[in-house]
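Researcher: Quick sanity check before group meeting.
Model: Go ahead. Protein one:
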Amino acid sequence: MRTRYKPVVGSVTPAPPENELERFVYDQLLFSRESNQPVSRHALSLLLADSQQLPRKEALAVVETYCDENAPMTPEYLGDEFLIPYLKISALVLSVVGVALIGLATANLSNRVHPLWMYPSGGIMIIGAAYAYVRSLRMEARTTS
């Protein structure tokens, strides 16, 4: 029989740390719990690096050590944070393919071949690329705020 982990309702918050950097992580974790917003270690390290002017590698090390000791249930990444790079890559690929289709259609006009389907499909790909890029920027702004 498999036992399941049952979370403690109204869990006791640990005492605030004395280190300034760990205190910042502690305050951010408390704020996210009170406002009922998910937070990840990646977002915490970005906030710490931006607010304390630390290198991102050092901020990530501080967040990792604090979360490993005091908040092990904090995830590495949220689903939205994991999706952002893929949206940007797909936007780049779609824009390159769309521009290539429009370029090929224009090059074939001199050969008296009229590939009219290439213009709308290239335009649709470029519009899709713009949409994916704007959506990734919105998701990135939402996760870092």
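Researcher: Fine. The other one?
Model: Protein two, sequence then structure:
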Amino acid sequence: MSTQSTPAKEILVFLTPTSAQVDATKLVECGYSCTAVSTIPDVFDALRSDSYSLAITTRPEIDLLHNIRSIPFVNLEIFFHAEPSSDGPLFTSKRSTATERRSHGEIFLRKFNH
């Protein structure tokens, strides 16, 4: 009997450039394979491939993703909310203390382990 395993597909992170890079870096540090994109042409090209099993984005972009390809997604706004920054929304925890921010970040990462 052969026990071939299917290689895990990547996670697609579709956020503003800074947020996408920060989140993708953290996911890679936790052992996940992912790609960060920040433009509509890049997300369109990425989703036309069959390389991604999950997308991380924000509420306004969910319909866009589903119009390109039906793919499960994580709405980052459930864990964080946006505050304005120079290159678009900067995501911070809903809570103000460092311990609470760490807790929300850990909950966010645990979503990928289940």
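Researcher: One line on it for the slide.
Model: Confidence is low (pLDDT under 50) at residues 93-98.
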